[in-house]
Amino acid sequence: RPLVRLDVDLGADVSLPAPSATGSSVVISPDGTRLVYASGTPPRLFIRRLDQPNAVELPGTQGATSPFFSPDGQWVGFAAARGASKISVEGGSVVPLGDVAGVRGASWDADGSLVAGVGRELRRLATTGVSQVLAAIDDGELGFYQPQVLPGGRAILFTADNPGDVDRTTIQVLTLADGQKKTVIRGGASARYLATANGAGHLVYVNKTTLFAVPFDLTTLDTRGAAVPIVDDLAYDNTTGVGQFDVSGTGTLIHRRASGRGESGQKILQWVDSAGRREPLPAAPANYLLPRVSPDGARVALWTIGQQGDQDVWTYDPKRDAMTRLTFGEANTRPIWSPDGRHLVFSRIGVGLLQVGADGARQAQALVPSKAPLYPWSFTPDGQRLAYSEVIATGVYQIWTVPLEERSGRLSAGTPELFLESGFLDTAAAFSPDGRWLAYHSNESGTNEVYVRPFPPSASGQGSRWQVSNSGGTAPRWSRNGRELMYQAGDSIMAAGYTVSGDAFVADKPRVWIAALGSTSATIGGWDLAPDGTRVMVVTPVESADATKAEHHVVFLQNFFAELRRKVPLGK
After folding, report:
1. What is the CB neighbour count within 10 angstroms for residue 405?
2. What is the three-state SS of 384-397?
C-alpha cells in the first residue's frame, strides 16, 4: 500500500506549544481513531475523534504536557508539574499516577504501572504513589527521557541525554532481570519500537529534523543493519533532541513540521519595552539561551550552543558589537553576573558552579564543586551570598545559598546551606534589591507559581511565604527602581507591586506589563530585566515564513508500516 500524506489544520484556535524536552505535544491512539494534543498557555489537553469535526477539552489538564495513550486506548496519561496522571478518553476526573516531579515521558507496563523518565532516573510509578528506581544515570549523563516498555515486558527502551548536541545523545536498552544497560544507537533521541510485522519490528528515532528507522531484534535487543532516513521535516527540541511525533498500532504516523519554532536553534537578541517596541541588537543569529544583562546594562552574558553541541559562556557588548568567549568546549551553562559586574558564575555539568572574570582575562575556576547539576540564579546586593538550585536524583530542584568573599580578585565560597527543603520543584531564586526577600517559583500547587520568602529565614518566620502570581508564573525578577516584582507567565511578562508591613510581604494583584512577548526560549527564563526596569532583553527564534502555520498544523502519514517495510526491509 502506498504512503499517504495529509497535512491537517487543527484549527486557528489551536496553539501548539514549542517543542520541549518532555515529549510530543500531539499523539494518536493505538487504534488510530483519536488524536490528543496540548494547546494554549498554560497548555491544556484536547481530544478529537477523527470521525468528528471538533475537539473536546479534557477537564483538569491545565499545565499538562507529553500526553500518551494507554495500550487499550481508553486512558490518556500526561505529565504535569506534580508528576504523572491519567484521564479517561471520555473525560471525568484526573487520576494521579505517582506524585513525583520532573516526568519526561512514560510508558504503560502490562500490570498497569508506569515506567517513566524522572529526572536522572528511570522509575516505575504505581497508583499507590510508591515508586521504584529501575536505573540511574552514569557519570556524564544528564537525564533519561521517553522510556518504552518493550513487548514481552523484559526490557525498556529509553533515551539518555548527554551534554552537547543530539549527536552525543544515546538510545539505550535496560534489561530488567539484571539491571544492565546497553547502548544501541549513538546520536539519536525519542526512540520507539514499532511492531511492523509478525514477531518483528523497527526502531525509529530522531536526529534533529530527521526520523530514522532500523530493524530491531527483540530477542537480542539490538539493531540489525544500517539506519535509513524516513521523514526529513520533523519538529524537535533543539536542547535535547526530543521529537514531535507519534505512531499508532495500525501504522499511522503523525508529526509536527520542523518550521517556525526555531528548531535550528538560531535566535536573535532584542530589547522589548512595555509598549511592545522591539530593538534588535546587531549580534549575528546563534543558539542563544538565558541572556543576563550586566549590572550597568552595558553587556549581556549568554549561554550558547554551538554547531557541534558545545555549550559555552560569552559576553556581548552591543555598542562595539563584540562577542567575548569565556569558556571553551565544555557543557557550560546559565551564567549570572556578580553585583559589581567583575565576575560571572556559571554551571558546568558534572563539575558544579564555576567562576570566571567577566573581562575574560583569567580562566574559569571551581567555586562550588558537585557532580549533581547546580544552577546559579542570584547574588545578594552586597555580593556576599549566592542562591542556586541543585537537581536531585528525582529531577526536583532544591534551593541552596552559599556565602562568598573575594580574595585576590577571585570569589571564594563557604559552606552551602539548604534554604528550602520541600520535595517540590523550587528554582529560579532571586534576591530582592534590599536582600531581605527571596523570590522563586515552585510547583507545590500543581502549577508553577511565584512565591516570596524572607531571607534569611528566621526561627519565627521559617514557614512564612507569600504567593505573588495568580495564574501561573516562573522566573521572577525584582525591579531596582520601585516596589515591583516581574515574572514570566506564558509569553507575557507580569508585574506585581508590593509593600512590606513589619515582617509581612504584601503583593498587589499582578498586571500584564509586556503582553505577547513572543517565543523567548524553550528554557524557562529566556529573558532578563534591564537595570533601569523599563524593558527586557529576550532571545527570539529566527522563524520561517510559515511560522503561524506550524502552531496548529500536523502531518498524517498513513500506511507508514508498509513504507518502513519497503524502505527498511526486515530480512530473515
Report:
1. 11
2. CEEEEEEECCCCCE
All cell numbers assigned to 166: 543530539
DSSP H or E run through 172: strand 170-175
Check if the beta carbon of residue 217 is closer than 8 Å to that of residue 224: yes
- CB within 8 Å of 392: residues ≥ 6 apart: 119, 372, 398
* Chunked mean pLDDT (size 10), the chain, 572 residues: 91 86 91 94 90 94 90 91 85 83 84 85 77 84 91 94 80 95 94 92 94 95 94 86 94 86 71 91 90 96 77 93 88 93 92 93 91 93 96 82 94 95 89 95 87 82 82 92 88 92 93 76 72 91 50 92 94 64
Task: Give Cβ neighbours of residue 389 (< 8 Å, ≥ 6 apart).
Answer: 374, 375, 377, 397, 398, 399, 400, 426, 427, 428, 429
- Could you tell me where the beta strands, DSSP code E, fall in 12-51? 26-28, 34-39, 44-49
Return the residue matching grid coordinates 499582578.
510
Helices and strands counted in the chain (H then E): 2, 51
Cβ(324)–Cβ(300) below 8 Å: no
Within 8 A by CB and 6+ apart from 327, the residues are 312, 313, 346, 348, 356, 364
Rounded CA-CA distance 104/119 in Å is: 7
Helix (H) / strand (E) element for 562: namely: helix 560-567
Rounded distance between C-alpha atoms, residue 203 and residue 433, angstroms: 53
61-66: long-range contacts (C-beta < 8 A, 24 or more apart)?
A: 61/87, 61/94, 62/447, 63/446, 63/447, 63/448, 63/472, 64/38, 65/17, 65/20, 65/22, 65/23, 65/25, 65/38, 66/20, 66/22, 66/23, 66/24, 66/25, 66/103, 66/104, 66/105, 66/106
Other C-beta atoms lying within 10 Å of the C-beta of residue 249: 16
Cell numbers found for residue 98: 505517582
d(CA 455, CA 436): 5
Contacts of 353 (CB under 8 A, 6+ apart): 345, 346, 347, 366, 367, 368, 370, 374, 376, 386, 388, 413
DSSP 99-168: --S-EEEEEE-TTS-EEEEETTEEEEE-TTS-EEEEEEPPTT--EEEEEEEPTTSSEEEEEEE-SSSGGG
CA–CA gap between residue 305 and residue 238 (Å, rounded): 9
Report the alpha-carbon distance of residue 266 to residue 365 in Å, rounded. Answer: 30
| CA separation for the pair 356, 345 (Å, rounded) | 7
Name the one residue in this structure whose C-alpha cell is 546594562.
297
Q: How far is CA 518 from CA 18, 42, 114, 446, 488, in A?
A: 11, 14, 35, 25, 11
Say if CB 352 and CB 369 are below 8 A apart.
Answer: yes
The β-bridge partners of 211 are: 206, 231
Q: Which grid cell sits at 85?
A: 496522571
- State the Cα–Cα distance between residues 332 and 523, nearest whole angstrom: 15
Full-model pTM: 0.75
- H or E segment to which residue 548 belongs: helix 547-550
